[in-house]
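Page 47, continued from p. 46.
Same chain as before, 225 aa.
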Amino acid sequence: MPLTILVVDDDLGTRLSISDYLELSGYIVITADDGQKALEIVFEYHPDLIVTDIVMPRMNGYELVRQVRQKPAFRLLPVILLTARIKTQERILGYQSGCDLYLPKPFELEELAAAIRNLLERSQIMKLEYGFSHQENPGNSGFKVADSHHYVNHLEKSEVLSSFSSREQEVLELLTHGLSNAQMGNQLHLSPRTVEKYVSSLLRKTETSNRAELVRFAITQGLVK
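Result:
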C-alpha cells in the first residue's frame, strides 16, 4: 500500500510542484495551506511523513511540529521543514521543535524525494523495533528508552570535532546549509565523488546513519557556526 505524505505550504505553486512530483513517485499526497488545517489532517488521516513550510497563516511550521510531537502516536512521524530562512539559530529552532530535517529553499525536488525515502525507510524500521519492544515490555515505551540512549551517546561524542580534518569541517558546514554534493564541490573545487567520500567519513566519525542525522547532530552539538 502506498505511503501517505502531507504537504503543507501556503504557496499554491510550491504545493502543486511537490505534490505532483511525489504522486508521480508513487506516494499518496494530501495538502494543506496552513498549519491549523495540517494539524487537523494529521489527527484524521495519520500520514506517514510531513513536509511543511515554516511561515504560514494561523499556525507556523514550528508550532505545527511541536503540537504533532505532543501526541504519543506521532512521536515517530518524520517531519521535513522547508524554508527560505537559513540562519543557524532558525535551523536550531527547527530541530528543537522536533523536525527530522531542515531543507532550505530553493531546493531540488529530486533531493527532497531522496530525503523522504531515507526518512520513511528509517521510520518503518523504528516502528517495527518499537512494536517488538512494546510487545515484550507493554508497560514501558521502548522508543523513549532507545531514543534517550541514542542521544546520550551522541552527547558524549562532541569531542569528534577534533578528529575532523579542515576539509571535513568545510564539508560539514556546507552540508548543514542543505547543499548537494555538486553544489559543495563547486564551492570547494572538488568533484561530487570526492565530496561524497568526505560525507561518508563524517558519518563514520559521528556514528550517524544518514545526512539528516549528521546535520541534526552537528547543529545541536555546536559543531558548526
